[in-house]
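Worked example 4.2. Below are the chains of a multi-component assembly; read each line carefully before continuing.
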Amino acid sequence: QKEVEQNSGPLSVPEGAIASLNCTYSDRGSQSFFWYRQYSGKSPELIMSIYSNGDKEDGRFTAQLNKASQYVSLLIRDSQPSDSATYLCAVNGKTSYDKVIFGPGTSLSVIP
Amino acid sequence: DVKVTQSSRYLVKRTGEKVFLECVQDMDHENMFWYRQDPGLGLRLIYFSYDVKMKEKGDIPEGYSVSREKKERFSLILESASTNQTSMYLCASTEGPTLEQFFGPGTRLTVL
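Applying the procedure described above to all two chains together yields the following structure tokens:
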């Protein structure tokens, strides 16, 4: 059974701080990794994708991937109250025929 | 921008009714998915489709069926709705090479 786990929340950080969200996965063959943000009552939206080891930066967001440790993380710098949401980690295999496996999500609250 | 639309945002049905949930995407994506999302259980895959008239069972297909007669449209059918099918239903489509999923706005179904 392929699994994706995320650090349990809720996570609270003050405005302007760095929020760190973590995710581990069980399938060593996984090739594609995604972070989705989901506001309450809304559908998930893709914020980051990463396919190779290392860091990928996009504005205030940085995704980090370590395939040897089967670990992917999301850092949010200068956290804003608008970042308050549930963050879902998702992991896929090599091809589009592999199902995406979603983690349970981590709830983030940014306190003004 | 990719647009995934769902036929209803809110739906109330009675036990035993046949329920149709429709999903349409406008980006010529090959792959389409139906999930349900429940508090504490995360996103669970019901069915997915890689091509017209093709369908594959996900993790929780019992009580559901699907139809994909046209590439852009993927329908979820509850043959005889039950109260335990009360949930948020999310449709998604995937861009083949990147495997990034784009979600529709969701349908909150209540079965009385």
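Take a moment to check your reading of the output against the notes. Chain B is about 0% helix and 55% strand. The CA atoms of residues 94 and 101 of chain B lie 5 Å apart.
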